[in-house]
């Protein structure tokens, strides 16, 4: 496997077709096809779904896994070229769940870029249970997981803890901002799995999570569903604060509140100086983070 093969594969996925990849890389479509076939033959895998009459590109399960490998290959290749050119730049790879990236740390990332010269950030979204494995394998440099674990040669520190609150579509007539759990219709719930402790609490009030009618993976999807004023969701206060600031929702406290969620900063011991500098900066910005996740008060 060589860089031209990886470059071609990534171009196919990012641009959506072999023809666009060929045009982008200034080669023939047959060259792109040959490079793709070479990878598949070398590793005995099928990377793309090939359906007659379908022009769009979709990845197989093997293709999904290979895409992650190809992105890491691309990053390492870029760093090697910079090393050969005498560049001091380094790429710091950060992994976290979607809700932490988008609602808690987005301004922190901007601060890192401005305060730490000669680094690039590679920000990736992963599930909490993947973070520790990726750190242990050095596939990412710093992780933010919603799970606390003990692993050899892996350093774990609590970064923040945040309250969970209820949100519904904004209603100008609302005057009471505390809600009794028993008043909520579980059929109108937008369920996001916030972890084992949350599931246990949820089951106490509304039964197994399998009883929920709408389950979604990311907070970004809440906006469309919350157009219905009868729908409700329980989210971390950082998400609620963002939606409330945009005038989209009212925020309620529950008489029996959910357990708060904690986020842990995870990194491999013995990281390089740039990783240590970024890690130290993030921990030094805890005041800014705590402002985002401060408890909701009416």
From TrEMBL:
Classification via CDD domains: PBP2_LTTR_substrate
Alphabetized PROSITE patterns for the sequence: HTH_LYSR
Coiled-coil blocks: none
Entry keyword annotation includes Transcription regulation: yes
Cross-referenced Gene3D superfamilies: 3.40.190.290, Winged helix-like DNA-binding domain superfamily/Winged helix DNA-binding domain
InterPro entries: LysR_HTH_N (IPR000847), LysR_subst-bd (IPR005119), WH-like_DNA-bd_sf (IPR036388), WH_DNA-bd_sf (IPR036390)
Keywords from the named record: DNA-binding, Transcription, Transcription regulation
Stretches assigned to the HTH lysR-type domain: 1-60
Gene Ontology molecular function terms on file: DNA-binding transcription factor activity; transcription cis-regulatory region binding
Top-level division of the source organism's lineage: Bacteria
A Pfam entry, by short name: LysR_substrate
UniProt keyword Iron, yes or no: no
The protein's name: HTH-type transcriptional regulator BenM
Organism per entry: Planococcus massiliensis
């Amino acid at each position: 496997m060589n860089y031209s093969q990886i470059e071609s594969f990534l171009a196919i996925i990012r641009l959506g077709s072999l023809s666009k990849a060929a045009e982008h890389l200034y080669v023939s479509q047959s060259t792109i096809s040959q490079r793709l076939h070479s990878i598949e033959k070398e590793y005995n895998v099928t990377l793309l779904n090939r359906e007659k009459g379908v022009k769009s590109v979709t990845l197989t399960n093997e293709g999904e896994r290979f895409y992650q490998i190809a992105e890491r290959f691309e990053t390492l290749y870029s760093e090697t070229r910079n090393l050969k050119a005498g560049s001091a730049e380094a790429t710091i790879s950060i992994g976290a769940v979607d809700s932490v990236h988008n609602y808690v740390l987005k301004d922190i990332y901007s601060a890192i870029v401005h305060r730490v010269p000669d680094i690039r950030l590679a920000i990736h979204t992963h599930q909490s249970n993947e973070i520790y494995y990726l750190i242990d394998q050095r596939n990412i440099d710093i992780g933010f997981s919603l799970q606390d674990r003990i692993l050899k040669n892996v350093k774990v520190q609590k970064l923040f803890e945040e309250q969970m609150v209820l949100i519904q579509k904004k209603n100008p007539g609302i005057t009471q901002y505390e809600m009794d759990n028993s008043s909520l219709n579980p059929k109108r719930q937008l369920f996001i799995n916030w972890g084992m402790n949350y599931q246990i609490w949820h089951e106490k009030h509304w039964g197994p999570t399998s009883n929920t009618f709408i389950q979604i993976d990311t907070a970004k999807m809440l906006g469309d569903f919350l157009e219905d004023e009868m729908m409700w969701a329980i989210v971390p206060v950082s998400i609620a604060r963002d939606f409330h600031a945009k005038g989209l929702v009212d925020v309620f406290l529950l008489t029996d509140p959910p357990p708060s969620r904690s986020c842990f900063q995870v990194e491999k011991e013995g990281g390089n100086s740039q990783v240590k500098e970024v890690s130290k900066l993030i921990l030094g910005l805890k005041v800014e983070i705590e402002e985002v996740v401060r408890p909701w008060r009416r």
